[in-house]
Design goal:
Shape: globular
Helix content: under 10%
Distance between the termini: 27 Å
Number of helices: 1
CATH class: Mainly Beta
Strand content: 25-35%
Largest sheet: 8 strands, antiparallel
Bound molecules: magnesium ion
Length: 239
């Protein structure tokens, strides 16, 4: 059932057609040189410290298939998403990522991956350094819903960091939406999503409505066929 709140959110999101190439591009802001890994706070759950994938599984719950090397984990194309063993709801998440160099492909085919909060709500990972695409699909976009405030990406081959504050959606007992999910994101220390209320699950060429789900679900990282690297992944539970 689609409630009034869900319809209102969907109407707001229609100001620009989804994936519109006419939409203004977010201003470019140079975030400066890459930084060393940010230390995990003492109360954080370390999901990846560079050594192993003990906190992760493949989508079919078998052992994780991505490649661990030299302190990072790299997408192994064709093996599917990397799924956290634990479920999470409201969180602060830190995750560092690096797109391949030399850059290959154009638009959505250049360095595509994604951080899926609760496995449902995608914060886009893409090589958006001098690589044009639809703004609601560039790096830092809530995919298909909201472009980043600015483009604060570094060139491919350099490490970048997302700091994400995510609040899960709440559902009434009848399954209708009580309050939407919200996301605040910093890319390389620069605010790119400011408490954005998600319209629903993120999707390509679709705006599916919210559908009631558990309060905690695994975090997922996307295999989009490109060898993106991740490192230094830690999370703090906020509820
Ligand atoms: Mg993606």
């Amino acid at each position: 059932m689609i409630g009034t709140l869900a319809l209102l959110l969907m109407a707001q999101a229609q100001q620009w057609p989804q994936h519109s190439m006419d939409r203004p591009r977010p201003p470019v802001v140079d975030p400066g040189p890459e930084r060393p890994p940010a230390p995990a706070p003492k109360d954080a759950i370390v999901l990846f410290d560079g050594s192993n994938l003990s906190q992760w599984r493949a989508q079919d719950s078998t052992a994780a298939k991505w490649i661990v090397k030299d302190g990072y984990v790299e997408v192994k194309p064709g093996t599917g998403m990397l799924v956290s063993a634990r479920g999470f709801g409201d969180v602060q998440l830190h995750i560092e990522w690096r797109t391949p160099t030399p850059a290959q492909g154009e638009g959505q085919e250049r360095g595509n991956s994604g951080v899926f909060l609760m496995g449902i709500y995608e914060l886009q990972v893409l090589d958006s350094y001098q690589n044009d695409t639809y703004p609601d699909g560039q790096a830092g976009a809530i995919y298909g819903e909201n472009p980043p405030l600015v483009n604060a990406t570094r060139p491919p081959g350099q490490w970048q960091a997302y700091d994400i504050i995510f609040h899960r959606p709440h559902f009434k007992t009848d399954g209708s939406l009580e309050r939407p999910a919200r996301m605040t994101v910093f890319l390389n220390g620069i605010l790119i999503q400011d408490n954005f209320e998600l319209v629903g699950p993120t999707a390509n060429k679709a705006r599916p409505p919210y559908s009631a789900h558990p309060d905690k679900l695994p975090l997922k990282l996307q295999d989009h066929g490109n060898p993106i690297r991740y490192r230094n992944i830690w999370i703090r539970e906020l509820e």
